[in-house]
Amino acid sequence: MALLCERCGSTFDKPTYPSVPVLCWPCLNFISRINQQVHSNLRRARRCGEPATLTVQEWIETLEHFNYRCAYCFRDNGLEEYGYLPVYMDHFIPLGMGIGTVRWNCTPACKSCNIVKRHLHPSVITLIPKEALERVQTYLTSLQNAEEIRPKTP
């Protein structure tokens, strides 16, 4: 019996696991990597005593917004070629400065940009163009503003 992957739309023969949603092996592996990325960064934030509220779905939405590319330089670093997540989760305001791993502080970064940015505050970074930093900050600020006006569920 052929199954249809709910993420990419490809057909495959054997179910990965009897779970919902139905995913092919490459998509299951991809989602597993994203899951691992989110949870390891949540642990890092908790160790710093900072907020750790980012969900896997929120991170996927951010990745999709930037088309799974680096938010600073737009490189994809092999997503199509290798099929794995080519970006790091960058904390726009680094951990240790009080913001944490929250939706409006996390953005995808390629290895090069992540190394250049390191643990520096965006205001002191000189090797990433100001326009790129401003573009990312505008996106993250829009997420924060949307979060603030969203009604709280009881």
Tell me the layout of helices and strands.
Layout: E1 3-4, E2 11-12, H1 25-47, H2 56-65, H3 79-82, E3 88-91, E4 106-109, H4 111-117, H5 130-149
Antiparallel strand pairs: 1-2, 3-4
Outline, from the CA principal axes? globular
Query: What would CATH call the architecture?
Result: 2-Layer Sandwich
Q: Could you give a short account of the major beta sheet?
A: 2 strands, antiparallel
Low-confidence spans: none
Radius of gyration: 17 Å
The fold-level CATH name is Herpes Virus-1
Total strands: 4
Count of domain modules: 1
Structural class: mainly alpha
| Level-1 CATH class name | Alpha Beta
N- and C-termini, Cα separation: 43 Å
Strand-residue fraction? Answer: 5-15%
Q: What's the SSE pattern?
A: EEHHHEEHH
Lateral strand order in the biggest sheet: 1-2
- The share of residues in helices is 40-55%
Mean pLDDT: 86
Question: Helical segment tally?
Answer: 5
Brief digest:
By secondary structure, the protein is mostly helical. It contains 5 helices and 4 strands. It is 42% helix and 8% strand.
Can you describe this structure?
This protein is mainly alpha-helical and 154 residues long. It has a single domain, classed as Herpes Virus-1 (2-Layer Sandwich). Helix content is 42%, strand content 8%. It contains five helices and four strands. The protein has a two-stranded antiparallel sheet with strand order 1-2. The longest helix has 23 residues. The relative contact order is 0.12. The mean pLDDT is 86.
